[in-house]
Fold:
Amino acid sequence: MTAVLHTPAAEPHSRLVLLPGNDLSADFYGGLARELASRGFDTRVLTLPGFDGTAPLAEPSWPAMVEAVLPVVKEGLGDDGVLVGHSLGGLLGVVLAARIRPRALVLLEPAVVPWQPVVRLSAWIYRRQVVDQDRGEVKLQGPGFKRVHAPEHFPAAVLERVVQSRSQTDVNTSRSLVQTAPELYPLPFEALTMPVLLLKGDSSGPWIGGGIRALHRRLAASVRAELQVVAEAGHWMANEQDADIAERIERFLA
Structure:
């Protein structure tokens, strides 16, 4: 079951759906949702099936996740909505955008690895670096991430919520998404005809940054694609620079 957190805009001009990162629930993006709503985006943030206590899919896999989330995203976007994906949600966003054709696609630190042979390894490395699985603690950095987040921007309650969300995530879902990621490849880049905005945190590190730059080069060959760097932001981005991110999305779509 996909859970939806709706943050309505007082004077909406566009619909927006945000797909979350790995182990992150919809309420992690509450601040960003409010910033977007204040700019007229009627915002819906999803919690994916199997995450944060939501009912998992009967047989979780990437193809099954895409089919389960597709109708929810399509309804949330309406006829002319904006699709936003963060990290793992960025990979999901690329696949869904090829089928739904939203007005625009926004990718926040997307975990879109252009090199299929290392997709599974990359997903495993991410999980090992971001969360100490034995101690249940959120890590601040790792070899592939110069900084996942800046602790001064994250109250203890926010980090505790991430740990809680992960503890309530279905283990089989997490494992299956790692194991079946190669099944999404080759990614449907040729079907992406909408403008794409890529936002990279300036402190997220070289591993994800290399993937984002390669993705930008691939997209820019066929569509309007912009790569922008958000100052004082790590891989998580949300809760660090919510107002800046919302403003960049608004300007891109103007």
Remarks:
- The beta strands are 3-7, 14-19, 41-47, 82-86, 104-108, 131-132, 137-138, 196-201, 225-230.
- Residues 151 and 199 are 20 Å apart (CA to CA).
- The chain has one domain: 3-253.
- The chain has eight helices and nine strands.
